[in-house]
Structures are given as C-alpha cells and as structure tokens.
Amino acid sequence: MGIIGAMNVSLSGMQVETRRMSVIANNVANMNTEGFRASRVVSSEVSTGGVSASVQDSGAPNPQMLRPGTSREIVELSNTDLATEVVNQRLALAAFQANAAVIKTADEMLGTAVNIRA
C-alpha cells in the first residue's frame, strides 16, 4: 500500500469516527426520552482497505419505573448511559485525531517527494 492508500484508509477511519460522534450526540440528546434505545457504531474492515460503519442497537435493557403521580403506570426509560457516551466520545475524538495525523504526515511526505523530483 502506498501513501495514497494510507490516506484513504485514514479517511475511512475519520468517516467512521464522524458517524460515531453523530450517533453519540443523538443518544445524549434523547437520554430523557421515554423508551429511547441507544445505538452504537460498529466498525468493520473493508476488503479493499479501510473500515466501514454500521449502526446497531446498544443491546442494553431499558430501565422501567412507575410514572410519578400514578400507582399503576409503568414507563420504559431511555437506556442511554451518559458516562458511557462521554467515554465513547473521547475515544472517537482520539481516533479521529490519530487518523488526521496520518493524513497530515502522508501529505507532508508527498510534498517532500514532489520537491525532490522537481
């Protein structure tokens, strides 16, 4: 794999992490919505190099409680865990930055190669 291939792999990684941040934002925005089910981004290797993203249900159960002011109505709450979302957001940011650093380095290497040939 050459420099351009490395850049494409890192670009696909950045796209996955952008998708992950979007899903995290949606989870946090809906954490007080009754019955909301949090999602997760699952990345998988692509045969041509790089990664792709798919969005799946987190699989965590939704907690239930009695609706305040009633004695019989049970409501299902959101299964979003803010602590988990914050950790996932930090990991996504770090992965995005690492992929951006690879692209920057590859770009610098290409610039050096052009200058040597000139």
Number of helices: 2
Strand neighbour order, sheet with most strands: 1-2
Main sheet characteristics: 2 strands, antiparallel
Domains (count): 1
Low-confidence stretches: none
- Structural class by secondary-structure content: alpha+beta
Strand percentage, roughly?
15-25%
The residue fraction in helices comes out at 40-55%
Let me know the number of strands.
Answer: 4
Distance between the termini: 24 Å
Helix-strand sequence: HEEEEH
Mean pLDDT: 92
Rg, Å, rounded: 21 Å
Structure description:
The chain is α+β, with helices and mostly antiparallel strands. It has one domain. It is 53% helix and 17% strand. The chain has helices at 3-29, 82-117; strands spanning 39-45, 51-57, 64-66, 74-76. Strands 1-2 form a two-stranded antiparallel sheet. The protein has a two-stranded antiparallel sheet with strand order 3-4. Helix 1 runs antiparallel to helix 2. The longest helix is centred in the last third of the chain and has 36 residues, at 82-117. It is elongated and about 80 Å long. The model has no long low-confidence stretch (mean pLDDT 92).
What does the secondary structure layout of this molecule look like, with pairings?
Blueprint: H1 3-29, E1 39-45, E2 51-57, E3 64-66, E4 74-76, H2 82-117
Antiparallel strand pairs: 1-2, 3-4
Helix pairs in contact: 1-2
Descriptive terms for the model:
118 residues; alpha+beta; two-stranded antiparallel ribbon; two-stranded antiparallel sheet
